[in-house]
Fold this protein.
Amino acid sequence: PGIERSNAPETLALFGLAAISDKQFEKGEKALLKAIEIDSTNYRIRLALAGFYRSSENKSALEWAQLEQAFDSAPKNRQVLKEVISYHLRADNVKKAEQFIQSALAKNPTNYDVNLIAGYFSVNQNELAKALKLFTVASNAKKEGSDLLIALSLKGKSEFSLKRIAEAEVTFTRIVNLFPESESGYKGLLSVYRLNDGASAAQSKLELLAKENIVVAPYLVLIQSAILNKDLDTASNYLEKVGEIDPEYEGFENIRNT
C-alpha cells in the first residue's frame, strides 16, 4: 500500500509491473498510469504500458496511444522504433510501417539507431540496396565500439548479398582491422575468398590472417568451417592453435563436444 501511494514514477512502474506479473491487472495498470501522469515523457513506462495493452484483448488503440507518445518523447530510441514498427506489422500494415520509418528518417536522417532499424526493416522487405544505404549511414554515425561493429557487419553482408564483392572485402577487412577479436570480419572474408579463389585458397588466406593477428577469432571461424565440411582432423589442428594463443579459452569444451 505504501508503494502504491508513492510519487516516484520508477517505483510506481516497478510496482505496476509486479502487480501485472501477479495477475493483478487493474492494480498494475493503475500504477503505470499514475507513473506516466507524474512523468509524461518517460518512454520506458509508456512502452511498459503498451506491452500490457498488447497482451490484453481489444486494447490495440490504447497500445498505439502509448507508442505514439513514446515516439514523441524518444524519436531516436531503438526500442521505441522497434515497438512502433512491430505494432504496424502485427496489423499487417507494411505501408504504415514504411511511412513511419520515412518520418523517423526525415526527423533524424543521420542518427545511428534510426538508420539501423530502418535497415533491418528493408532487409526484411528484401530491399537490400536500400538496406545497404541505411547501414552505411549508421556505420558513419559511429567512430568505435560495438555499435560500429554491428553496422559494419550488416553493411558487409548487404554488399556481399548484392554481389558487390570488392566493396564487401573492403568492409570485412576494415572490421578485422578495427575489431580483430570479433569473428564477424573473418567470416565475411572467408566467404569473399571462397567466391574469388575457391575453398582451399580461402582457407589458406584466412590461416595467413590468423597467423598475422595472433587472436582466437579467425581460428574459431576456420574450426566452424572445417566442422561443416566434416574435416575433424583439420578442426582439431585449429583447436590446438587456439590453445597456443589462449590456454584459458572458455569455449574449449564446447568445441571438443561438437
